[in-house]
Specification:
Layout (H helix, E strand, L loop, with lengths): L12 H21 L6 H20 L3 H11 L4
Helix pairs in contact: 1-2, 1-3, 2-3
Length: 77
């Protein structure tokens, strides 16, 4: 999922931070989403965190990379 972060493109520290946060929240969503004992409110909070991190990537001018990360995680925004 984090292949985008290891490409040879040059990113600022802020862009890298935004994409790393998105990867972290996507992994959390994937793990927590498979938990049979999950609580609905916590799952909703993680989904909102994913969306907020995605929007941060868009604001940091790396929307294509963010879209690739979301698509590779197979998550709908």
């Amino acid at each position: 999922m984090s292949n985008v972060l290891t490409t040879k493109a040059t990113y600022t520290v802020y862009q890298t931070l935004c994409m790393a946060r998105l990867v972290h929240y996507l992994q959390l969503l994937k793990t927590y989403g498979q938990d049979p004992d999950r609580e609905g409110w916590l799952l909703a909070a993680v989904q909102k965190a994913v969306y907020a991190a995605y929007r941060d990537c868009v604001a940091a001018k790396v929307p294509q990379e963010a879209r690739l990360l979301v698509e590779s995680a197979q998550v709908a925004l």
